[in-house]
């Protein structure tokens, strides 16, 4: 079935929040989603299959010291949340969302690198990010509320 990727809108928020609750232990208040829609609307995308929202990716633009060139301050794309509904996985939806966002980060925002945090047990997501050229930069001890460690993974876009 055809996968359509488009920018998220306020009308998608109920679906996005439902997918977030269904797929991830990290949840956010409504203000968080609205803030990202307002500030970073062109790095916040949904995936539709048959006009149903089945996944989303939320990213924000930040500045900070590069993970690759340690003395350099750079613009970064932080992939904050990505999820695909269970029945729609394994069809390339996350890959399509991620490649769309990486393209926008690079072309529209001219970011130097993209990064994210992922649970060390989340093999599916780690494989996805590795497939896109992300590498593990460091392990962040007890990053998650339940005590699990995170890998910080990053990819240089320039
Ligand atoms: C991780 C997630 C987003 C992947 O979504 P998806 O649409 O199924 O991913 P894709 O079909 O685009 O798969 C791309 C690659 O990811 C990896 N991958 C995806 N599912 C996998 C699985 N179950 N086991 C191992 N690797 C997997 C593979 O490398 C795959 O490439 P391949 O098909 O060539 O083997 C999805 O499983 C999900 O929503 N999980 C719950 C939420 C989550 O963990 N989000 C990420 C938080 S950091």
Overview of the molecule:
The chain is of the alpha+beta class and 158 residues long. It has one domain: Gcn5-related N-acetyltransferase (GNAT) (Aminopeptidase). The chain is built from four helices and seven strands, in the order E-H-H-E-E-E-H-E-H-E-E. Strands 1-2-3-4-5-7-6 form a seven-stranded mixed sheet. A hairpin with a 7-residue loop joins strand 3 and strand 4. The N and C termini lie far apart (33 Å). Coenzyme A (COA) binds next to strand 4, helix 3, strand 5 and helix 4.
Question: How many domains?
Answer: 1
DSSP strand count: 7
**How many individual helices?**
4
Distinct ligand kinds: coenzyme A
Alpha-carbon Rg, integer = 15 Å
CATH architecture: 3-Layer(aba) Sandwich
The main β sheet shows up as: 7 strands, mixed
Give the overall shape, derived from the CA principal axes. globular
Q: Low-confidence segments, ≥5 residues, pLDDT <50?
A: none
* Structural class label: alpha+beta
């Amino acid at each position: 079935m055809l996968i359509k990727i488009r920018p998220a809108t306020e009308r998608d928020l109920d679906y996005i929040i439902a997918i977030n609750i269904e797929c991830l232990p990290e949840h956010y208040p409504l203000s968080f989603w609205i803030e990202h829609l307002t500030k970073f609307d062109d790095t916040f995308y949904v995936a539709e299959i048959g006009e149903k929202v089945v996944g989303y990716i939320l990213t924000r633009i930040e500045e900070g010291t590069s993970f690759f060139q340690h003395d350099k301050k750079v613009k970064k794309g932080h992939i904050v949340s990505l999820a695909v509904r269970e029945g729609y996985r394994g069809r390339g939806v996350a890959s399509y969302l991620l490649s769309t966002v990486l393209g926008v980060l690079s072309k529209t925002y001219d970011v130097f690198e993209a990064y994210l945090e992922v649970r060390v047990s989340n093999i599916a997501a780690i494989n996805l990010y590795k497939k896109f050229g992300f590498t593990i930069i460091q392990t962040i001890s007890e990053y998650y509320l339940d005590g699990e460690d995170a890998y910080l993974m990053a990819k240089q876009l320039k």
